[in-house]
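pasting for the record
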Amino acid sequence: MQIDIGVLEKLEKLSALKVDENKKDEIIHQLSSIVEYVENLNELNTDALDASFSTLSGGTPMREDVSIDKSEIGKKILSHAAGSEDDFFIVPAILE
């Protein structure tokens, strides 16, 4: 995947962030490096690996699932949102 100014502008719109004009080349270079690194993973042969592969013998240890009511955390997070309604974030539509 090629990261160019068009892709960066789409990412800006989707993330509701604004990248400074003099930083765009640097961001494009950094994103391109990240994508190139991730694309290297396509070279790995994972055909012989089980989807639930674990390095622990006996699998992953389980913990007790305990419910903790900390509703104030959600309210605090939503207080920083650009828009919220009925405990949900309001975001711009991304499908055109």
